[in-house]
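Quick one:
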Amino acid sequence: MTILCVRFQLPPMYEAALPGLLGLLEEFSPVVEALPPDGALVDLRGAERYFGRGAVELASVIRVRSLALYGVDCVIGAGPGPMLARMALRAARPGVTCAVTEDGTREFLAGKPVASLPGVGPATARTLCEYGLDTLGRVAAAPLSTLQRLAGARTGRELHEKANGVDRGRVVRNAVSSSLAAERAFERDELDPHRHRRALLSAAEELGSRLRAVEKVCRSLTLTVRYADLVRPRTGSSGRTPVSTTRTRTLGEPTAHSADLTRTAYTLYEALGLQRARVRAIALRAEGLTSAEEASHQLSFDPVDEKARRLEEVADRARAKFGPRAVMPGALAA
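Output:
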């Protein structure tokens, strides 16, 4: 076992703590791949020999240091490769590392549903299940030619390899993600556009707060609207459209200002022209993140804008001291 998949149990609004936690992981290995908002892959090849400890022992040390230094617990999976480490993570729990050995790979995978394999989407899983290939053990035993006939040449070959425990992935050293996302799901399928806009306002304010916490600005904003019942009627047509709609807009200038993000989110939403759409969830993603210090900003002499920015600073301090719910969505706009 040389790869760890670590998921820190961070509260939703505290992604700003991830860089420090990644630094903790880099004390054990220089090859750390961030998996925002709360995880990472760690390649321990060489570290096991250097520290004279196995991956499970090192995972225990990481957990203790994370709790001692940051007050954050974590869940850890270990495996011979990134894919198996990720799958092991799903079976892990706080305080206990789930480890998959090379010799135990086939046994670990055999009884798992085919949909649990990374890269297998609902359509592929449904096709395989229709032919009785509902577990990874059965997929591993199926002839390669059968899998290629069902899923295509390339996909079939990948399925055959992964189901047999062949993990060709590798950990790619990187920095924290160049994007941040916030999603608002409704308790029931929502028709009211006013509630849609309130969800957008809440998500935009969360993104603005998180961007300012990590001292970043974003260059573009992406809106994703997920609909009910997997499909929705297309306006003016009897056809059907996919489960979601996604639109992206480049901002006039890089920003972390909640008001700018909210205006852009509203513009994206209005451009969709939804008419009584049954919406299940709305998500915003801030993309193209760069350092706030390096970004240019058009000076504004608008006293309302300056007041809003000062209020944001006060609200950010309140959230840092009293938690993410210290300022209600829309309070700054009021």
